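Bug report (template v2)

What were you trying to do?
Predict the complex of my protein with adenosine-5'-triphosphate.

What happened?
Run completed; filing so the output is reviewed.

Input:
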Amino acid sequence: MTSARAAVPTGATSSAARAAAPASCPDAPHIWARGVSMDFHVAGRIHRVLHDVDLQVPKGGFVSLLGPSGCGKSTLLKLLAGLLAPTEGEVSVGGMTPMEAVRQRRIGIIFQEATLLPWKTALENVEMLMEVTDKRRPRAEIRDRAREMLRLVGLEQAEDKRPAQLSGGMRQRVSIARALALDPEVLMMDEPFGALDAITREEMCDFLLEIWERTRKTIVFVTHTIDEAVFLSRNVVVMGTNPARVIENMPITLDYPRNEDTYAIPAFGQTTAHLRRILKEGHRAGRSA
Ligand SMILES: Nc1ncnc2c1ncn2[C@@H]1O[C@H](COP(=O)(O)OP(=O)(O)OP(=O)(O)O)[C@@H](O)[C@H]1O
């Protein structure tokens, strides 16, 4: 198994390649980060969390950021989603800054916890962002759109249920419906299935691939679970620690649609074994840095 750096248009690039301006090229990646570093100030000291990260995600791509706990995956996702500004480097989403992309509702963000309002029903939770972001939109249109999104995530029977009456997987489906209701171009997902049991997690992965195949959103997905990253993604970007950087970008060549048989394909096992090795090497290098 070889590194994807030379073979695919996503992932780490050399500093020479950085001279080209992706935004001006017709085949520009949908999302890119160039030379991104991030420092946090902790107790009067500078803590460098990300160092010189380059990343490219094509339109309609599914890229997972894979790395050990605490390596900086969420920080990178927050930079791509406009929730943080980098200390150094640049980020672009659809040819604009992430903050502008958020303002134009091009980015939907899904966190590990579904963050639903407990006193609202599933339907009202899905309506919520539409109501807040477009106050002039007719009420009936918002309701129709929310119902359509609940149908898309298979929860049309649960529209009157409150979050406490839903399982963890169902709550996450509601939060995905809420994000999709605004029809963003990009979904940024930060360990969205991390709090779920193993079987529900696999079901949610099947479900997410169905949604992706139907909607063709560009998805950036954070996980520290190798199987999950391989099962879902077109590309897995492996991050090393201390400070976090991209150590490999691997195209996953398994055919879509993927389903439970995918886990039994020899190439699936070979790919996960390769990624496990790289992660361990990156972890060892980070410890001795
Ligand atoms: N706002 C902040 N201020 C200071 N340090 C921070 C801040 N946010 C993150 N960090 C630090 O940055 C490092 C990376 O954190 P991050 O949450 O990005 O890692 P992660 O790979 O997503 O971890 P996990 O998989 O456990 O969620 C950690 O050491 C964390 O303590």
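What did the reviewer find?
Residues 40, 42, 47, 49, 67, 69-75, 224 surround adenosine-5'-triphosphate (CB under 6 Å). Strands lie at 31-42, 45-57, 62-66, 88-93, 107-110, 186-190, 218-223, 235-240, 245-251.
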